[in-house]
Write a structure and sequence with these properties.
- This protein is mainly beta and 295 residues long.
- It has a domain of 205 residues: Porin.
- 6% of the residues lie in helices and 58% in strands.
- Strands 1-2-3-4-5-8-9-12-13-14-15-16 form a twelve-stranded antiparallel β-barrel.
């Protein structure tokens, strides 16, 4: 699997280089960006290492791309975030360390310099199967998630406040969401709000709040954060409001080498009554393109 991820990343980088060309006057309506990264962590210990430790190797890959169009009062913003990672500890089978698919598209029309009306759609899921390890009575792993299990497709209609290119706030009083559970073999306790015997849960009457921040807070230090809150009008108690936060702090060592700290926080009462979180710190390779044209 690690070899496959390396091959995929090389192909993505080569494709991006091939697509990067000189920006023409017509292309200035579009603002495009592309970033692909590879983080590798490795440690090894001799059998007689007295301080203790477990030899391991971990590989994380991520890809982020944006294509934003603006002409007069019309805007169309598109974003892709893909993350996947594997870890192999000595004496254990290979396991996932991170797995995320996020797609977002938004069409807007400005009615003031800072405010837009908009309609949007976003999709959230993962690439491969997820397990709770060594939890069953016989010591086997239990399948708890998979691609489209869960998968979330959310549409939204509302207003967006965007005072500058670095910050935006979307307020959506109407935001229907579809929750998918396509894999019937996912554990009985992991329904993600989908009713028994069903593969899709539909929430028509709901609201959503989204906030995004992306800026260099210091020289060679970038902070990117995305927050989303989802409110079902039928379930207005505080503990049943969903919250999702994804934040990445990236420090550039040079053009290609970076150090990144990534954090994901999820609170979804249909998944778990407690806050879920994941965190990773990595040194790796980052390749970026800004303002390139595609023909």
């Amino acid at each position: 699997m690690i070899k496959h991820l390396l091959v995929l990343l090389v192909l993505l980088l080569n494709t991006a280089v091939a697509l990067a060309q000189t920006v023409t006057e017509a292309d200035t309506l579009w603002r495009r960006s592309f970033a692909a990264g590879l983080n590798l962590n490795q440690s090894s210990f001799s059998d007689n290492w007295k301080a203790g430790g477990v030899s391991s190797v971990a590989l994380n890959t991520h890809l982020e791309a944006r294509a934003d169009y603006k002409m007069a009062k019309v805007s169309w913003d598109n974003a892709v975030q893909l993350q996947y990672g594997l870890i192999k500890n000595k004496g254990e089978e290979q396991r996932k360390s991170i797995d995320r698919i996020y797609l977002d598209t938004k069409y807007g029309y400005a009615f003031t310099s800072d405010w837009n009306t908009f309609v949007s759609a976003n999709f959230l899921s993962q690439f491969t199967k997820g397990y709770a390890y060594d939890v069953d009575a016989d010591g086997t792993d239990r399948l708890i998630s998979n691609f489209l299990s869960p998968g979330f497709l959310t549409f939204a209609l509302g207003a967006e406040y965007k005072p500058n290119p670095h910050f935006s706030l979307r307020l959506s009083p109407f935001a229907p969401r579809f929750t998918f559970l396509a894999d019937a073999s996912v554990g009985e306790n992991e329904r993600y709000g989908v009713p028994e015997g069903k593969k899709v849960r539909t929430e028509w009457l709901a609201a959503m709040i989204q906030a995004a921040y992306d800026r260099d807070i210091m020289q060679n230090l970038n902070l990117r954060a995305n927050y989303m809150s989802y409110i079902n009008y039928k379930e207005l108690s505080g503990r049943e409001i969903d919250h999702l936060l994804n934040a990445t702090l990236t420090a550039k060592v040079n053009r290609y080498i970076n150090v990144s700290l990534t954090c994901n926080l999820v609170y979804d009462y249909d998944q778990d009554s407690e806050v879920q979180y994941s965190q990773s710190l990595a040194l790796g390779i980052l390749y970026t393109l800004q303002g390139f044209s595609v023909r």
